[in-house]
Amino acid sequence: MQMFLFDQQGGTMVVSNPAELSGPIHQPAMVTQVLDLLSPQPGQTALDLTLGTGGHALAIGRKLGPDGLIVGIDADPGALQVADARLRGRVPCEFQLVHGWFGQARQIAGRLRVSAFDNVIADLGVGTHQLDDAERGLSFDSEQRLDMRYDPSAGPSAWEVLNRSSQEELADIFHRYGEERYSRRIASRICMERPINTPAELAQLVKRVAAGRTSRHRTWRIHPATRVMMALRIFVNNELEQLDELLTQLPNLLAPGGRVAIITYHSLEARRVKHTWRRQQREGIIDVLTPSPIMPTERQIRQNRRVRSAQLRAARKPGVTS
Fold first, then answer.
1. 205-244: b (≥16 Cβ within 10 Å) or e
2. Is the dihedral of CA 73, 79, 83, 85 positive or negative?
3. Closest Cα partner for 315 from 293, 292, 289?
């Protein structure tokens, strides 16, 4: 099977003999709970909005049988190549993998002539293959140039944002997307010490600012640069804007009776999903299946510490599935 990647202009390119990813493959979060909530059946059509290296798609695709279809979307071209290699010969259904952003899901479905989906999954976490790739600049100790883009060809890098934005713009990014309490002080220090070239430099700078505002004997529950790094990553990849667009599109992406599951990892994402679904439920557009978010089990956290903050929510479109 060939993998078709749609570029931003709507053209296609064919990738043959996709390379296997070097390093650890991302372990999908809360697979058992996702399958229980989505309940994929033979012959259905599924959509993985954040395909990554294909973990959730692999689990769902095995349930769809030879008459099913799964569509996978991801902004990371390298992850798509690995997912293609993983799914090939391991799922009985047809699959189509698309290079794009999950906020473009409705447009992509139209290109593929898929009218609606019975199962939709979005895992909004960062993949292991991305966190462990030093060149991405997503880890605190990376000595590589700051980048943070999921799609290396799209938009400004974190280095450009950090070193070319005004102090006010940086403070706004850190506060709005990271809820960082010391956003103004951190932005001021960055502007004094620029250029900041690597995640390790940025992490040490933020740590110095935080240490100057707290007791020197304090131990941090999380690294003091966590919120700043998260804010930069969210801003560079337009993550919240993509999520807002997706939540607007979802009712039209689902077939009658179709189900969607979304895994969030921080309060900015979780609030958007919760509040939008509450409103859509009042309007009769969807039925929320999880009055409270489902958390990972202790065993799942032991197996993968990166899922410890995960929250899983699910909803269903009213009607009877075909």
1. bbeebbeeeeeeeeeeeeebbbbbbbbbbbbbbbbeebbe
2. positive
3. 289
User: pTM value?
Assistant: 0.88
Task: Assign domain 3-130+239-316 one CATH number from 3.30.200.20, 3.40.50.300, 3.40.50.150, 3.40.50.720.
Answer: 3.40.50.150
Mean pLDDT by 10 residues, the chain (322 residues): 40 39 64 97 97 94 97 93 92 96 95 96 79 64 89 91 98 96 96 96 94 57 87 95 96 97 96 97 97 95 90 95 57
- 304: helix, strand or coil: coil
Q: Which of 167, 199, 198 is nearest to 185 (CA)?
A: 167
- What the block records as the tokens of 305 is 């510490």
Residue 315: phi, psi to the nearest 5? -145, 165
Taking domain 151-236, whether its CATH number is 1.10.600.10 is answered by: no
* CA–CA dist 78, 8 (Å, integer): 16
- Asked if residue 88 lies in contact with residue 222, where contact means CB atoms within 8 angstroms, the answer is no
Residue 306 pLDDT: 83
Looking at residue 141, its pLDDT comes to 79
- Write down the pLDDT at residue 35: 97
| Nearest alpha-carbon partner for 208 in 200, 272, 171 | 200
Do the Cβ atoms of 30 and 310 come closer than 8 Å? yes
Phi and psi, residue 174, nearest 5°: -65, -35
